[in-house]
Amino acid sequence: MEQVTRKEITLKSGHRMPVLGLGTWQLTGRHAEKILSKALDIGYRHFDTAENYGNEEAVGRAIAGGDRDAVFITSKVEPRHLRKADLIEACERSLERMRTDYLDLYLVHWPSETIPEDVTMEGMATLVDRKMVRSVGLSNFNVARIRKVLSVSDVPICNNQIEYHPLRNRDDIVAFCRDQGIAVTAYSPLAQGKVFDNDVIREMARKYDKSAAQISLRWLIQMDVAVIPKAASVKHLIANYDLDDFELSPEDMDRIHRMGIETRLIDTHA
Length: 270
What we know:
Layout: E1 3-4, E2 8-10, E3 16-18, E4 22-23, H1 29-42, E5 46-48, H2 56-63, E6 72-77, H3 84-98, E7 103-108, H4 117-129, E8 133-139, H5 143-152, E9 157-163, H6 171-179, E10 183-187, H7 199-208, H8 212-222, E11 226-227, H9 234-241, H10 250-257
Parallel strand pairs: 4-5, 5-6, 6-7, 7-8, 8-9, 9-10, 10-11
Antiparallel strand pairs: 1-2, 2-3
Helix pairs in contact: 1-2, 1-9, 2-3, 3-4, 7-8
């Protein structure tokens, strides 16, 4: 099982991933660069992007001139690039756009229905061997698909990034990943804003004198899950980062867990 602290998760590769990151989906251009630069000033050290987000150049500009080893960068490869040669070329292009020699974590963004898992993982192993990638993982993979990858991969599967928030319980996949030593990262951890309208979350926000977003993120972190909330304003960047001065009680953790709401926002079958 991965070792979890309040700040970092130690991945199966031995590398450490900050628990709190910044999601960058839909952040583009100069605005993305400004937000990323401000996030660095605040203390963020984990940035999540993908080849199809159109903002890898902005990530590169934001981290340029700093200590590269102090920043954890995750990117993701599209399903159409999952054959070995295509995957290696896609990673090379991502590295060029971000002007870096390596990625801390490289994920298969979505499973492919046509490209075998062993072909993809052979490519991932090559990237690790060439030191272009430090850790590899998956995104939007269910338990059955993770099992297939584990059966053919010669490199550790370090992470599975899934839609996960208080309004969508993922007990089955989280438990499986934990048993396999695979860290879980929650994307859309605020349910695309829907947590703000939830009565239980709002009640706890009043109780702890925190925002609904902070309650939701704190709940996930206490579930030993990494979170990558997106923030398009400095105000939200600061609020999302301010999570270390309180903890939810076991009773409140369980109350959120037992809400039993199933709000799927992303169609993983598309």
